[in-house]
Design a protein that fits this description.
The protein has 29 helices and nine strands. The chain is α+β, with helices and mostly antiparallel strands. The strands form two sheets. The chain has a six-stranded mixed beta sheet. A three-stranded antiparallel beta sheet has the order 1-4-3. Strand 5, helix 27 and strand 6 form a beta-alpha-beta unit. Helix 11 runs parallel beside helix 14. The radius of gyration is 26 Å and the shape is globular. The termini are far apart.
């Protein structure tokens, strides 16, 4: 097999396998029978079909304009694979163990642990274990909503379904190791897309740049939803690139399905795939064989995500209604507009007029004007902190907690205390922190050149990737919609913005290299230019990442929680009587310990706890009380220290990139009250 085929195929295989797994596992989850045997059996069948149709077409050498006639070297293919393997090994060593619920990775882990063990949703509250319902008890915790007699996880099920497979194979550590594996797949997929859109010789540099960036290093050490979303995005775009070149309908369908299934992983991906809707309508209108398959695959994938969301994650979607409802309306309107556009293009008279108008645009000055407008857009984002201070007033309990959190971080960072600050005006600066000034400038230059070329009817392979990258980058920078501490906020950039800007920067560097060649300079000058471009791209990325690269965080949590579960013992009904411990451990006890868990409401007193203890004993079970300090549980029985964890956690910064870690101490004390 040639190097071209190896690179082309290995860069889309991860996305195809994720498509097969999600297609096999989601119906089982909806039916309440997500168990290893049926899931793996269906996956084997789906994977065989997806790989057959996704890989069976002959693969030409991927590459940009200057490399189409040049064969892909084994150095390029091997370089991408080597970067992926080294990244995987390094990240496995540095892998975090976020299972105690403090932020999203542990929430996803606890969601996945429940699916691995039970294979169905929702999660029962098990009130019977506490002698029935009691007004002093609550069963919810952060990321796990209490609705009626059920507990409903907050997030979309895509990532937990993927993590559950790792759990069936390797237990809790197998689930945690899915993060480095998905990260390595994303790095290889980015290398493959770079080879297709820029040129194979740039592919190893692209893979290395993404792998060394601080957000990618950070996000692929923990179970973040951005990881499978990025694999699906990069793989889907690569499949559609290949389908365009060969008019392969099966690949177009699978590419659309991969992009649509991102919605099953992250509901806000509805915004990211809107340009794909328009592109599918354009292909249909122009009579391309791939138009309808692309649209069908996209509709099935996104539809599956919406079905899961409204059936299994409805409280989460209801929580997001202020932003989700307009997005759904926009998506529906855009689908209708795309269909009208397709009909107009297919209608002979209108289609002829539209094609003439497009030709006139290509010949006129509009491409130059559009390219020039890229500069003020970039300048506006860069100058935004001088013109705007983004604030958000709290509207609910979660917003008020977020205000309190930001105030704490501001005090630690020695900043003016204002919990309503969102720091979104710094979003472009965030990107520059992580990829450096040279890459940011190259990306802006590349975007301007590509806008001009696309409007002139050139570089058609860039139409869809550029539309997705530009649309999502601009909308994300305008409204990141995330708690603004770093590295946490960098997860919003790693899904599209940072890979997209690196891709544009590499394309601009390749454009410059082609000009050097055409000017008649010799091989030495060409090599010097390429080496200089590589240094300009990589050096700032490494400088930013250096302080974080070898910093291990969230270590020892698995062993600590397992030890706590052993000390609690069997047949216990666990009541968490202190807020912070209840936030962190209610679902951990329910999922990892396999025990009924509840928490006392804020105004519960000793009399309420005594009543609950009596009801648990009457139900034939052993009451166990948990708190963060001995004083929380000592009034009810002998306090026993059942969990003591001393580790490191992510640094939290608001106005500069993170350079290290903070200490983290977690304690849990237990008491077993005597029977009244």
């Amino acid at each position: 097999m040639s190097a071209a085929r190896v690179l082309a195929r290995v860069s889309v295989v991860p996305a195809l396998l994720l498509v097969a797994w999600l297609a096999a596992s989601l119906p089982l989850l909806l039916a309440g029978i997500f168990r290893p045997v049926p899931a793996i059996a269906l996956f084997a069948v789906a994977a065989a079909a997806v790989l057959w149709f996704g890989l069976r077409a002959p693969h030409d050498a991927p590459g940009g304009e200057a490399d189409q006639a040049r064969p892909v070297s084994w150095w390029a293919a091997g370089g991408v694979l080597a970067v992926g393997v080294v990244f995987l090994v390094f990240q496995v060593v540095m892998n975090a163990e976020q299972i105690i619920v403090r932020r999203d990775p542990a929430s996803y882990m606890q969601f996945a642990i429940w699916l691995k063990e039970h294979g169905s949703l929702p999660i029962p509250q098990m009130r019977w274990a506490f002698g029935g319902g009691d007004p002093a008890l609550s069963y919810e915790s952060p990321a796990f909503y209490q609705r009626g007699d059920d507990i409903i996880p907050q997030f979309m099920a895509g990532l937990p379904l993927i993590l559950a497979l790792g759990g069936w194979i390797g237990g809790t550590h197998g689930m945690l190791l899915m993060a480095p594996l998905l990260g390595a797949c994303a790095v290889v997929a980015f290398g493959g897309l770079t080879a297709r859109l820029v040129g194979p010789n740039w592919a190893p540099l692209g893979a290395a740049a993404l792998a060394l960036s601080l957000p990618m290093l950070w996000v692929s050490r923990s179970t973040y939803s951005e990881l499978p979303a990025l694999v699906l995005l990069l793989g889907g775009l690569a499949l559609l690139h290949d389908a365009r070149r060969r008019q392969a309908r099966a690949q177009a369908f699978l590419g659309g399905l991969a992009l649509g299934l991102i919605v099953l992983v992250r509901i806000d991906a509805l915004r990211d795939v809107l340009p794909v809707v328009v592109f599918a309508g354009l292909l249909v209108g122009r009579g391309r064989r791939t138009g309808w398959p692309l649209g069908l695959g996209l509709a099935i994938g996104a539809g599956a995500g919406l079905v899961e969301g409204f059936v299994l994650s409805r409280p989460y979607l209801r929580y997001l209604h202020a932003s989700l409802n307009p997005l759904l309306a926009m998506a529906a309107a855009l689908v209708g507009a795309a269909l009208l556009m397709a009909v107009a293009l297919r209608w002979e008279v209108t289609g002829r007029r539209l094609r003439r108008a497009g030709a006139a645009v290509a010949r006129g000055r509009l491409p130059d004007v559009a390219a020039a407008l890229t500069v003020p857009v970039v300048v506006a984002f860069a100058a935004r902190p001088l013109l705007q201070t983004v604030r958000r007033e709290p509207h609910n309990a979660d917003d008020r907690l977020n205000v309190h959190f930001i105030e704490q971080v501001q005090r630690i960072n020695h900043l003016p205390v204002d919990g309503t600050r969102q720091y979104s005006e710094l979003s472009y600066h965030w990107v520059v922190w992580y990829i450096g000034v040279p890459a940011a400038l190259l990306a802006a230059f590349g975007a301007a050149l590509l806008v001009r070329r696309l409007l002139r009817g050139r570089s058609p392979e860039w139409v869809l990737p550029f539309a997705v990258l530009a649309w999502t980058t601009v909308t994300t920078l305008l409204r990141p919609a995330i708690t603004p501490d770093h590295p946490w906020a960098s997860r919003r950039l790693v899904a599209v913005v940072i890979p997209g800007m690196l891709l544009l920067a590499l394309w601009a560097a390749d454009w410059g290299l082609r000009r050097v060649r055409r000017a008649g300079h010799g091989p030495r000058a060409v090599r010097a230019f390429a080496a200089g471009a590589a240094v300009l791209v990589l050096a700032p990325i490494v400088v930013t990442s250096a302080g974080f690269m070898a910093a291990r965080t969230e270590q020892g949590e698995v062993a600590a929680v397992r030890g706590m579960c052993e000390r609690i013992g069997p047949k216990a009904s666990v009541v968490l009587v202190e807020r912070a411990t209840a936030d962190r451990f209610t679902q951990v006890v329910r999922g990892m310990c396999g025990l009924p868990a509840a928490r006392t409401v804020p105004d519960a007193g000793p009399g309420d706890v005594a009543r609950i203890v009596r009801k648990i004993y009457d139900a034939g079970r052993r009451p166990v009380l948990l708190g963060g300090e001995a004083a929380n549980v000592a009034p009810y029985g002998r306090a026993v220290h059942v969990l003591e964890l001393r580790t490191r956690q992510d640094q939290r910064t608001l106005t500069r990139w993170p350079t290290g870690t903070w200490s983290l101490t977690v304690n849990v004390w237990m008491a077993v009250p005597a029977r009244p």
